[in-house]
Amino acid sequence: MMGWRLETADRADIPVSFNPGSSSVVADLQELPSTVHSASWVAPLSYLGDKVSSYGGYLTYQIKSFGLPGDMVLLEKKPDVQLTGQHMSIIHEEPNNPRPDRLYHVRVQVVEGNFRHASSSAPVSREELMMVLSRLEGVRLRGLYFTETQRLSLSGVGLEEASATGSGRRAHHVEMCACPPGYTGDSCQGCSPGYYRDSKGAYTGRCVPCNCNGHSNRCQDGSGICINCQHNTAGEHCERCKEGHYGNAIHGHCSVCPCPHSNSFATGCVVTGENVRCSCKPGYTGTQCERCAPGYFGNPQKLGGSCRPCSCNNNGQLGSCHPLTGDCIDQEPKDGSPGEECDDCDSCVMTLLNDLATMGDELHLVKSQLQGLSASTGTLEQMKHLETQTKDLRNQLLNYRSAISNHGLKMDGLEKELSNLNREFEALQEKVQINSRKAQTLHNNVDRTTQSTKELDTKIKNVIRNVHILLKQISGTDGEGNNVPSGDFSRELAEAERMMTELRSRNFGKHLREAEAEKRDAQLLLNRIRSWLENHQVENSALVKNIRDSLNEYEAKLSDLRTALQEATAQAKQATGLNRENEKTLESIKRQVKEMNSLQSDFTKYLSTADSSLLQTNTLLQLMGKSQEEYEKLAATLNEARRELSDKVRELSQSASKASLVVEAETHAQSLQKLAKQLEEIKRNASGDELVRCAVDAATAYENILNAIRAAEDAADKATSASESALQTVIKEDLPRKAKTLSSDSDKLLKEAKLTQKKLRQEISPALNNLQQTLKVMTVQKGLIDTNITAIRDDLRGIQRDDISDMISRAKSMVRNANDITDEVLDGLNPIETDVARIKDTYGSTQREDFNKALTDADNSVKKLTNKLPDILSKIESINQQLLPLGNISDNVDRIRELIQQARDAANKVAVPMRFNGKSGVEVRLPDDLDDLKGYTSLSLFLQRPESKENGGTENMFVMYLGNKDASRDYIGMAVVDGKLTCVYNLGEQESELQVDQSLTESETQEAVMDRVKFQRIYQFASLNYTKKATSSKPETPQFHDMENGNSNTLLNLDPENVVFYVGGYPSDFRLPARLRFPPYKGCIELDDLNENVLSLYNFKKTFNLNTTEVEPCRRRKEESDKNYFEGTGYARVPTQPNAPFPTFGQTIQTTVDRGLLFFAENQDRFISLNIEDGNLLVLYKLNSEPPKEKGVTHTVNNGKDHSIQIKIGKAQKLMWINVNSKKIRIEGEIFDFGTYYLGGIPISIRERFNISTPAFRGCMKNLKKTTGVVRLNDTVGVTKKCSEDWKLVRSASFSRDGQLSFTNLDLAFPNHFQASFGFQTFQPSGLLLSHQTEANNLQVTLEDGHIELNTRDGSSPIFKSPQTYMDGLLHYVSVINDDSGLRLLIDDQPLKNNHRLRHLSNSQQTLRLGGSHFEGCISNVFIQRLSERPAVLDLASKSTKRGVSLGGCSLNKPPFLMLLRGSTRFDKAHTFSINQPLQDTPAASPRSMEVWREAQSCRPPPRAQASHGALRFGDRPTSHLLFTIPQELLEPRSLFAVDVRTASSRGLVFYTGTKSSYMALYLSKGRLIFALGAEGKKLRLKSKEKCNDGKWHTVVFGQDGEKGHLVVDGLRAQEGSLPGNSTFGLRAPVYLGSPPSWKPKSLPPNSFVGCLRNFQLNLKPLNTIAASVAVSPCLSGSVEKGIYFSQEGGHIILANSVLLGPEFKLVFSIRPRSLTGILMHVGSQSGKHLCVYMEAGKVTASVDSEAGGILTSVTPKQSLCDGRWHSVTVTVKQHILHLELDTENSYTAGRLPFPPASTQEPLHIGGIPAHLKTLKLPVWKSFFGCLKNIQVNHIPVPVTEAMDVQGSVSLNGCPDH
Q1: With contact defined as beta carbons under 8 Å apart, do 977 and 993 qualify?
Q2: How far apart are CA 385 and CA 387, in angstroms?
Q3: β-sheet bridge partners, residue 1770
């Protein structure tokens, strides 16, 4: 308890004493002023410092307040314990209070829950408490609790600490941390020796190394000033030599100054060679301080010697003592007493004495010189005179010195007196103040006494006056007559005397004793009451505190209630507004009900019309029945004719021909020909209408009749020659049998007619009004047929026996024509059946009952809504109060993924060798893109072996293994065999091995010298580059070794599920290949890169017998470089000064890619982006509310050379300059402030916010500078601190449509061996992949309908054609190999062979072309075997010319994923899918159409595009859905679906497949996603933990993997379960997104959910086989406005028979395009009568086509239509003038427009035209992309919602507002 002290609030100490008996500290407070109400006990240093181990322990103490309990009153509540440290003060308050004169025990646990901040009363966190304990600077305990306290005592103070040797309870709260370098302590709260605490960091600051130049390992926290500098150094950082030493403290050491020897009597010295100049201390003199100065004596040159002051007190006389012995010499009598000491002389006198001593020495020297001379008389006289003058001068100087000394003594006395006077004055001033206060108090007392005296004097005077009055009254001399009666007076006097006597006789002793006893009892009672009050006062104080807290709480609740009332008032107002809006809505609904009633009447009329049409149809069918009967009669007539013909054939079998019959036949043929022409004219006139044409096809037999006539003419010509063989012909041709065939065909025709009749009775045609005309035409045609048949029958009857040949020929023709008639009638009925089916699909079963039922349901719904509105409005308030915001973990998923990627990226950047001990190893994490490793593998690493004495002579060691866990095939490995490196690789059949000639370098581990190994493989060829001592200052020359795998495989097939990468060692259960089966490595290994990606051993999955925190890594020499390699996957975030007046940024770049983002800065909705586009610099910027703008400069920067870029911003000038080499870009505008900018790329969140599509930069950056100086990249992702030698290599390219990449004059090909290999990705079915040409040979690899074909110049058909298709967007590898075994084609290592061989390959240059013929996709890892070079991958940027090609990366690949879904393997980067891509109803353009029509020119997307790309909206109808067919290859037992969902709906079906008894479904219920599985009557339901109807995107993975069902939401919330009895569900096609129309179990929601879906996948593969789409439209995010949205995927709307196109016509609408080419409006469906409005390259054109020809007019706007605003388009036809108006710009064209006077109803096509109209002569056929609204035709709004047909991706629900 020693050291505790007591302080008041103003830090004044109160005397304390220590009581050994009670081991307590006691303080007497009786002298303390009564105004002091606060005193605290302050802890000594033993309780302070590092007390982290006290966390969770207890602070205990005891206090006592001494005094009279009755006088002591409890003071107000204050903190009981206060801890101070790290600029924080935290306090603790005990819930109870002590009692007067009682011992008070306090026990506080040191945890964060017991403390709060003294300044803000905020809770203390664990981190803050640990910070205070780590440097505890003060502990204060409350001491004063009561007034009138006489004494205080403190005892038993203890602060528990945890230690390893403690004997108490276990300290569970104390942590033991494994600290990083530089930190020490249980919680890493301290800095290790050699480090100090920098207060600038987080919490208590970072521990940074001391900068003491190696002379100290301790320095002050905060400042870094070094403590206890060693090695003779001094200074804040030991940067200089301490006094008396010389040397270089920073780079060398400090030595003692030789002044004179090792005794350093100098403050410093300068040593140049052997010359030494010393700066001597006082008392020493000489060049090396080798002697004592005057006034000092001693021998400095002696070891241990020094100079001491003379003690002769000679008052300044020269030569006061001997310089060696100290004996006094030449003493003069002292001025003072013998005991008086001589005072010190001032500095001036000392300087003068030194000079005189020097002069004395010189005089002694002169004297010694003169003693050797002969003295003459004159000389002696001069010497005497000089001596006399010298003595006089000496005496004067001594007198001067004496005078100065006397004055100095007087001044010292005066100073002492002055200081004494000051002290006395201060004491006097204090006394004066005290006396003044006393005098003031006395004066106040005197005033009060005087006042009291005056009051007493007045009272005395009053008494005297009253006595006088009484005496006068008694004596009767009262002048006023107030005399006292005499009788009364005597009587009263006697009474008074009696009373006095009685009073004297009474004894009050007893009463006095009783009163005193009562007083004592009352005093005791008072004391008891006081003690009772004191006891209850403590309880009441706690109760008061509780009541006060309760009141505060109630007050807070009242304020909350007041706020809630205010919100309720606001919501009530809002509800009132909603009521008004709902009333308006109700009125609108009532109006709509009236309109629907009127529509109902209209529908009734339409139904009556339909009934009449149906009657007409029945009439038509009856007529067709009659026609059928006529056909039957015709068949009977034909049978009769057949019999007559047979009879006549038999009768005329012997007749000869007659020429006259031929003439008659010709005449009859001419009449028949005329009749046929008349029938043809009737047909042409009646076939104008489409439906009529379908019916007229049944009458096309007349053409056959015409053919029969012509055949009859031919037969007449040959009648003579054919008459002899008539009988034989009849027998051979078997005419009776053919007549039977004709009869059977007629029966078939009858059946077809009956079937048609049945179908027509079941269907309703939209064009029933026109069928009457068809019936008339049919009647006319029937009459003609009857006439024709009668004529034919008459002709048959008129045939004579001599006409046998002619008759036979015509009979043949009739049989043939009858068959043709039957076929053509059937062909004519087929389109009728098709049209009937189309009519059925369009109108469905639209009967009168359905219309009435729909109207009745709508009316009932309106009535129910009207009744429920009041209840709904009353519940709005309660619902609003009950709703709480739901947290959505998916909001942070992107950030979590980014942090994970940063951590992995940081691990990859640890370029430090790892040391292996012969038992350890690591499994390294591989990149996600394993497909790239199939064809090309480049691995670089460094190796070192310890020296033999460390190594133990180990020669055979395992190095690395990259391959599948099944090590029998497909792997790459390395090992050390007999001290030399051996490399082995296997591509599936056999191993290839190579051993390096040189032994592996042995070196020390601390300064390791390492060999560099670089393994490169391109298909089956490999090479090894070995550089010995690569990390030394003089590396040896690299050696190259070539390898070739002799098998037929070319790819390294790594299974993502089973691939491993072991380095240094391997797990015990893993079996290595035989050639790698050696003990683990002993030595150091460092990974360098894998396929140009930096890789580190510290980015490991797991370790084997290795603790990286304990094993010290190897050290090796590294060259420093300021280059940074950007891998094309990340970015660097750089902070900068936000308010600099002239910000400047600079960088030097090297790159070979065509596109990349260099610099990006943003603030809110404004940004600046410096990009590389097509190899040139382009600036995209948005500085205000206008759309983004761009500026560029034509200067190639992707040639791999240095290009310096500087960005300067002048805010005051509102200018920005961007300089690249000698080119300059100047941008004007208000430049915004930004505190952070990005280099090389941007995070995903910013990319999505600003819709930036430019990929990340790939290349080198150096010389990075900003306004404040050089840039150091610390916050990076995908950035390495070096540029590898292979970074310029470009292995991949993206090809746009018709893009092409050509290489000319490649090296010579091998004479008998040829190989061309490459990888490709595409979604397109056709295109040229590779064309290889020599002087005499041309080889092409193409894609035709998804099949790969190999062709040569001299072959008409393909040599090879793959059976499978390869247009799935995945990476596939193709190799064409020609060798001694023949020609073969390998596709993904699957061979196609034949005996064909290529010829003429020798002695010719090779030319290579990649892409072409509409190929669109990516090509990578190209290899061409060449004669003069080692096998290597082809650099696509070298010696190439390109068109429509982007080098460096594949546009089909997504950016690398930052985190994978739980339970998944790796996502393939080629898996891209647009869910609405298959909805395009427009057929693919043919090459011819691509040449005729131009491609659309797209506008730049807005900064915040509102349409979610690739997403579709469901729920516009209850059965809204997409139907998918599952390919057979995806039907697996493991079926995991994935889809992104965004909805605000609480219920609805999302996904369904199966039947009622066996199904799989995903649906929403109460806002949560539920996965349901049913099989064999058993069910499984998995529910998401949180609601997902928050309007945000959620990624859902669901399905069945074996017996288990899975549900994963946003990758973080997972549910699993199994069906009872281990039942399983077998996936079957089809699969529905949304709600299927039927076959759903009753337990599932009946309707589709309302929301959006995207990225639908099965087993990580996109599903794009959409079979049907119902009520699905593009998904729009953000706010929408009125209008129609046509997406980029294409679509259009058809309104049938809704427009009157006549001589006077007006069309008005508004557009906001997103592309500058597309059809806006099209009226009409015939080639001779239509109107079309379209855009072509930004120009708006209106064209009209009529029978007399066509005219057009156009308007080219002054500003682009891509400005995000609405533009009005007006087309007018009036008085033969076509007028087009675009906003305020007009265009007129006059011409003849002979539309018929009677206007006709025409269909209106909006946004595009169907495929069957694309035969019209239009320059544009592409669908419109953008928004369209306010359509009016002839001043009447067009009801788009009543569209007959909506094709493609069109949204009628609104247009995105941007």
Answers
A1: no
A2: 5
A3: 1708, 1781
| Three-state DSSP state, 1627 | coil
Q: Which two tokens stand for residue 1516?
A: 């516009």
- List b or e across 1456-1486, with b for residues whose CB sees 16 or more CB atoms inside 10 angstroms: bebeebeeeebbbbbbbbbbbebbbbbeeee
Q: Which helix (H) or strand (E) holds 439?
A: helix 377-475
* Nearest residue to 1734 via CA among 1722, 1745, 1744: 1722
Tokens (6 digits) for 808:
């036979």
- Neighbouring CB atoms inside 10 A of 83's CB total 25
The C-alpha atoms of residue 1421 and residue 1410 are separated, in whole angstroms, by: 12
Taking each helix axis from N to C end, the angle separating 848-882 and 509-651, rounded to the nearest 10 degrees, works out to 160
Q: Specify the pairing of strand 980-986 against strand 991-999.
A: antiparallel
Q: Which of 1051, 820, 814, 1093 has the alpha carbon at shortest distance from 940?
A: 1093
Concatenate the DSSP letters of all residues of 1148-1213 into one string. Answer: EEEE--S-EEEEEEEETTEEEEEEEETTEEEEEEE-SSSPPEEEEE-----SSS-EEEEEEEETTT
Q: Which of 1435, 509, 455 is nearest to 936 (CA)?
A: 1435
Between 670-674, 706-710, 900-904, the lowest mean confidence (pLDDT) is in 706-710
Peptide bond into 260 cis (omega under 30): yes
Q: Is the peptide bond before 1630 cis (omega within 30 degrees of 0)?
A: yes
Higher pLDDT, 1853 or 69: 69
Q: What pTM, to 2 d.p., does this model score?
A: 0.41
Q: Are 1217 and 1231 in contact (CB under 8 A)?
A: no
With beta carbons less than 8 A apart as the criterion, state whether 77 and 91 touch: no
The highest-confidence range among 309-318, 1094-1103, 1389-1398, 1464-1473, by mean pLDDT, is: 1094-1103
Amino acid present at 171: A
- Interatomic CA distance for residues 1719 and 1741, integer angstroms: 10
Q: How, if at all, do strands 195-198 and 206-209 pair?
A: antiparallel
Decide if pLDDT at 1709 tops 90: yes
Give the H/E segment covering residue 355: helix 347-371
Cα 1116 → chain centroid:
37
* Cβ atoms of 215 and 238 closer than 8 Å: yes
| Residues in a beta bridge with 1132 | 1239, 1276
β-pair type (991-999, 1002-1003)? unpaired
Q: How far apart are alpha carbons 1504 and 1250 in whole angstroms?
A: 6
Residue 340 three-state SS: coil
CA dist 1565 → 55, 1296, 1584, 1672 (Å): 49, 45, 10, 22
Alpha-carbon dihedral sign for residues 356, 359, 365, 371: negative
Beta strand ranges found along 288-437 (DSSP E): 291-292, 296-298, 307-309
According to DSSP, the residues that pair with 154 across neighbouring strands are 25, 63
3 state SS for 1747-1767: CCEEEEEEECCCCCCCCCCCE
Residue with the two structure tokens 């009900």: 593
Q: Which helix (H) or strand (E) holds 1230?
A: none
What's the average model confidence in pLDDT over 1669-1685? 78
- Count CB atoms within 10 A of the CB of residue 792: 19
CA angle 697, 700, 703 (to 5 degrees): 155
Q: CA–CA distance from 446 to each of 439, 453, 458 (Å)? A: 10, 10, 18
Q: What is the pLDDT of residues 1589-1629, one digit of tens each?
A: 888 889 999 988 777 888 999 876 667 888 877 677 777 76
The segment with the largest mean pLDDT, out of 30-39, 543-552, 1420-1429, is 30-39
The span from the CA of 983 to the CA of 1042, in Å, is 11
> Which residues have CB under 8 Å from 717's CB, separation 6+?
662
Residue 1724's nearest CA partner among 1707, 1699, 1749 is: 1699
